[in-house]
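Entry for the shared binder. Reason: the reviewer on the internal report wants the predicted structure included alongside the sequence.
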Amino acid sequence: MALVAGFVAFALLEPEIGIPLLILGLVFEIGEATFWYRYLAKIRVRTGAEGLVGERGSVIEECRPRGRIKVYGEIWTAECAGEGAGEGEAVRITAVDGLTLTVEPAEGGGRL
């Protein structure tokens, strides 16, 4: 936006004022691009099935040892660790293998 304003100032104002404003807009745009590039490089985006690890879900079909769970409105096939989980219980996702989630009972247990 600053670069566009610099171009407008360059086109409409006297060269003594327009050229410095154009250069100022260019410097500002380069600085802004550098800032966002460095800032966003620090943030690791977790998407897809891998982003589900650590999330909580609710068992919709008894999971002893295989069943189905609901996470963020999506239904997944799950393998439950240990003694499994009954319908309506809260579970935490520990791993993803293709389209199957490995889950364990959530801390605090209960129902979601």
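Summary line for the report: The two ends are 47 Å apart (CA to CA).
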